[in-house]
Design goal:
This protein is mostly helical and 474 residues long. It contains 24 helices and no strands. The radius of gyration is 23 Å and the shape is globular. GO terms for molecular function: gluconate transmembrane transporter activity.
């Protein structure tokens, strides 16, 4: 019965969100309450699961999300990401732009939320598309879609990546070392496969893009004016831009934390603490410092502090405060939906569904490793199809599967990667991002299905064998 009530709760949440336009937070809390009471968890047990599930995930990822969003907001205000995108055009040329764009989105851009990423990337795509060819917008739309979400689920500090790693009890540094490879590889392979489809005639601009006669319904996007860009600065805003540090300096608040987290990941696997104790006080001090600075919360805080000091110098107090205010507003929304997703996972765990899933994960004796990875992928994919949120699907799937990991003969990292992979599958019309993507890029609904929905599906399929390979060798 736990499985049936879980299915009813998820379907009810989806109906509330899609049909009755209920806010996802409210819908998910109602689903938690129904599931707990209907499955026999009890009034007190349900409330305890909801509150403790929320609190546990906040302990794990609350500061990481807050620091990451604020860091991204400050760098966005300083133009770091838009400058990076424009630099890619100059360096690689327009025709290679889809690959450069998806590589950047899947490596550096996960520091900012997905909605901001598409806002930053879409004007460039619209302006660069004619230089790529008649189907250039289709190519760039696919590259943007897979780049954003491959980074979001695999690359730290992407919200889904951080959440999955925390919920399955995996050191964030270990996830970082694998994710920084798997994310870009998935995005680049997907971009290549999608471009082959576009060349074969899969993309038809007259059907998939908003045409000039429909311009009244399309958003106004600024086009890049190369001649204007070459003129000397004449406005106070241009003068501010001249004071901005070089791009490499502006990206340091992201790059330095990533290096620190990666370095900190070596402490436990290589037993550096024990080796330092044997080597003497100096070595102990060095390892303690590395452990302190390599802690993800501390590393991201140092990045945030660096971005804040940089922003105060080049943007002054008022614009820095504006950027932080925007970041705080976004942080509150993300933390709430993330925490409620953790509550749903906790209630599902309290129903005893974990025992049922444990039976599913151990039912096949022939290929237990492969079956476990496939089941983790399917659970996350089904949740995403139903709920329409990559992060909620990833968090809920990790919450469901995490409690049974100890009963599996599979490396937790492989299960985590499978969850991340499945959570991308087929982003479609029940996602707010779908409609934002459609409007900002000037696509029809059919064109958005043919780009965003398809590339997230391809990315999920492309990354699944990687998760299986990790499971077999780990």
């Amino acid at each position: 019965m736990a499985a049936l009530h879980t299915a009813i709760a998820i379907v009810a949440a989806v109906v509330l969100i899609i049909r009755f336009k209920v806010d996802p937070v409210i819908a998910l809390v109602l689903a938690c309450l129904y599931l707990g009471l209907a499955a026999g968890v009890g009034v007190e047990g349900t409330i305890t699961a909801v509150t403790e599930g929320f609190g546990e995930i906040m302990v794990d990822v609350g500061l990481l999300i807050g620091f990451g969003v604020l860091l991204g907001s400050l760098l966005h205000a300083m133009g770091a990401f838009s400058t990076l995108v424009n630099a890619l055009v100059r360096v690689v040329g327009a025709r290679r732009l889809p690959y450069a764009m998806t590589a950047a989105l899947s490596t550096i851009f996960p520091a900012i939320y997905v909605d901001v990423q598409v806002v930053l990337a879409s004007p460039l795509a619209r302006s660069a598309a004619p230089r790529i060819g008649p189907r250039g917008l289709g190519n760039l739309a696919g590259a943007i879609g897979t780049g954003i979400f491959s980074g979001y689920v695999f690359v730290v500090p992407g919200l889904a990546a951080v959440s999955i790693a925390s919920l399955i009890g995996l050191p964030l540094g270990t996830w970082l070392l694998l994710g920084i490879i798997i994310g870009p590889v998935t995005a680049l392979v997907t971009t290549l496969l999608f471009s082959l489809l576009v060349r074969a005639g899969f993309w038809r601009p007259e059907r998939d893009e908003v045409q000039p006669e429909d311009a009244a319904t399309a958003p106004e996007l600024e086009e890049e004016d190369e001649d204007a860009a070459a003129e000397p600065a004449r406005t106070p805003e241009d003068a501010r831009e001249r004071r901005l540090p070089p791009l490499g300096v502006r990206l340091l608040p992201i790059l330095v934390p990533l290096v620190l987290i990666a370095a900190g990941a070596f402490v436990e696997p290589f037993d550096l603490v024990a080796r330092a104790e044997a080597a003497g006080p100096a070595a102990q001090s060095a390892v303690s410092t590395l452990t302190f600075l390599g802690d993800p919360n501390m590393a991201l805080f140092l990045g945030l502090l660096g971005a804040f000091l940089m922003a105060r110098r080049v943007l002054r107090e008022h614009r820095t405060s504006q950027a932080l205010t925007s970041g705080f507003r976004t942080t509150g929304e993300i933390l709430l939906i993330t925490g409620v997703g953790g509550s749903l996972g906790a209630v599902i765990e309290a129903t005893g569904l974990g025992d049922v899933l444990a039976g599913l994960f151990t039912a096949e004796a022939g290929l237990p490793v492969v079956v476990a990875v496939l089941l983790a992928w399917v659970v996350a994919a089904l949740l995403h199809l139903a709920i329409g949120s990559v992060s909620v699907a990833a968090i809920a799937a990790a919450g469901i599967i995490g409690p049974v990991l100890g009963q599996l003969e599979v490396a937790p990292i492989a299960i985590g990667l499978a969850i991340a992979s499945g959570a991308m599958f087929a982003l479609h019309v029940n996602s707010n991002f779908f409609w934002m993507f459609k409007s900002l890029l000037g696509l029809t609904t059919q064109g958005t299905l043919r780009s965003l929905t398809l590339v997230t599906s391809i990315s999920a399929v492309v990354s699944l064998p990687i998760a299986i390979a990790v499971a077999l060798v780990a």
